[in-house]
Amino acid sequence: MFVTKYRRKAFTNEMMTRCEEIMREVCADFEADLKEFNGEEDHVHLLVHYPPKVQLSKLVNSLKGVSARLLRKEYDAHVRRYLWGGHFWSGSYFAGSCGGAPLTLVKQYIENQKPPVG
Predict the structure, then answer these.
(1) 12 near 88, Cβ under 8 Å?
(2) Which range marks the domain in which residue 68 is found?
(3) Interhelix angle for 13-29 vs 56-74, to 10°?
(4) Do 55 and 32 meet the contact criterion of CB atoms below 8 Å apart?
(5) For residues 55-82, b (16+ Cβ closer than 10 Å) or e, as one string?
(6) pLDDT (tens digit, 9 = 90+) per residue, 15-26?
(7) Is residue 11 part of a domain?
(8) Total domains in the fold of the chain
(9) 84 lies in a domain?
(10) InterPro entries recorded for this chain (predicted)?
(11) H, E, C per residue of 1-55
(12) Is residue 95 domain-resident?
């Protein structure tokens, strides 16, 4: 899970769709598979299957860095109203292993996140 800086409600539906596209491309570059993606106005949830050779911190760094750069560039006027100082994402993130949980249960949780308004 990634949270916007200051938990600002910056995402629109269009931005959420674009963010998913960007994150799918980044995952593909790491030979990882974005299994599920969803979120709300101030955060996103990702279910990613990645190979053991990939360092999680490098994958997260790339996901956050590339998405922040492109979303700021493509939605500059909108993003500037909510986020400033060159930041998009909070510096932290949550990553959990779901090896013991049924994948369908994790997917269902992510699917049930409320979409952004607007």
Answers:
(1) no
(2) 2-111
(3) 140
(4) no
(5) eeeebbebbbeebbebbbeebeebbeeb
(6) 999 999 999 999
(7) yes
(8) 1
(9) yes
(10) Transposase_17, Transposase_17_sf
(11) CEEEHHHCCCCCHHHHHHHHHHHHHHHHHCCCEEEEEEEECCEEEEEEECCCCCC
(12) yes
Structure tokens at 49: 């299957």
Whether the pLDDT of residue 7 is over 70: the answer is: yes
Residue located via tokens 């952004």: 116
Q: Is the torsion defined by CA of 56, 35, 66, 53 positive or negative?
A: positive
Quote the tokens at residue 36.
Answer: 């599920």
Measuring CA to CA, which residue among 76, 5, 92, 15 is closest to residue 42? Answer: 5
Of 38, 32, 76, the C-alpha closest to 56 is 32
CA–CA distance from 69 to each of 19, 22, 43, 89 (Å)?
Answer: 11, 10, 16, 10
pLDDT tens digits for 38-88?
A: 999 999 999 999 999 999 999 999 999 999 999 999 999 999 999 988 899
Instruction: Classify residue 118: in a domain, yes or no.
Output: no
* Residues 79, 87 contacting (CB under 8 angstroms): no
Task: For residue 78, give the CATH number of its domain.
Answer: 3.30.70.1290
